[in-house]
Amino acid sequence: MFAIVSIAGKQLQVEEGKEYKVLLSSEQKGQKKVSFSEVLMVSKEGKTNYGTPLLEKATVEAEILKEYLGEKTEVFKFHSKKRYTRTKSQRQQMAQIKILKISYEIKK
What we know:
The protein is mainly beta. It has a domain at 2-67 and 96-103. 0% of the residues lie in helices and 67% in strands. It has no helices and eight strands. The strands form two sheets. The chain has a four-stranded antiparallel sheet with strand order 2-1-5-6, with no helix packed on it. A four-stranded antiparallel sheet has the order 3-8-7-4, with no helix packed on it. Strand 5 and strand 6 (47-50) form a beta hairpin. The relative contact order is 0.30.
């Protein structure tokens, strides 16, 4: 059984029991278990259900194993011949999650 879930604006194909690295939103920070309700597709026992755009009553439950900062991203701006340079950088909050349960009733 697998599902396609929208997490922090990115679509991810997930399966039960596997671990994934995702962006962490401010509401999820500090929690041990999270639930994702933006499920786009669920496939179970060879039957596939698609949402328009989301499936109703479908959730994916996950456990946050580790919170950490991602790799540093640097932005460098300059204007030639004007002595203008700006450097900015950031590190995004990331989380390693383990999918515990995908819940959805397949309509027959």
